[in-house]
Amino acid sequence: MSPLFRRRPAPQERLVTLIRKPGCHLCDDAQAVIEKVCGELGVPWERKDITEDRALHDQYWEQIPVVLVDGRQHTFWRVDEGRLRKELTD
Question: pLDDT tens-digit profile of 43-68?
């Protein structure tokens, strides 16, 4: 199939990853948005803690919270509900 006609995955086939650390109020805010959007769309999501993963710490410690969609960085610091929803449905 031509890349121009590649089917976009359904929301349920996507994966949102929240990279966070304990005691981070921006992380709590980001998680609330992710829980809402992913819950409404049926998108699976996971949470990873930079204090438990040295590679994630080294890569993202200045940007947390970081949101990945399908393994690619979507945003950091603040999560915009509309932008995340658009990424998962368009």
Answer: 999 999 999 999 999 999 999 999 99
pTM for the full predicted model: 0.88
In angstroms, rounded to a whole number, what is the distance separating the alpha carbons of residues 8 and 1? Answer: 13
Secondary structure (DSSP) of 31-42: HHHHHHHHHHHT
Query: What is the C-alpha to C-alpha distance for residues 57 and 50, in angstroms, rounded to an integer?
Result: 5
Helix or strand holding residue 66 (H, E): strand 66-69
Q: Looking at the chain, list the stretches that DSSP marks H as alpha helix, in order from N- to C-terminal side.
A: 25-41, 54-60, 81-89
Pick 11-89's CATH classification: 3.30.1360.60, 2.60.40.10, 3.90.1860.10, 3.40.30.10.
Answer: 3.40.30.10
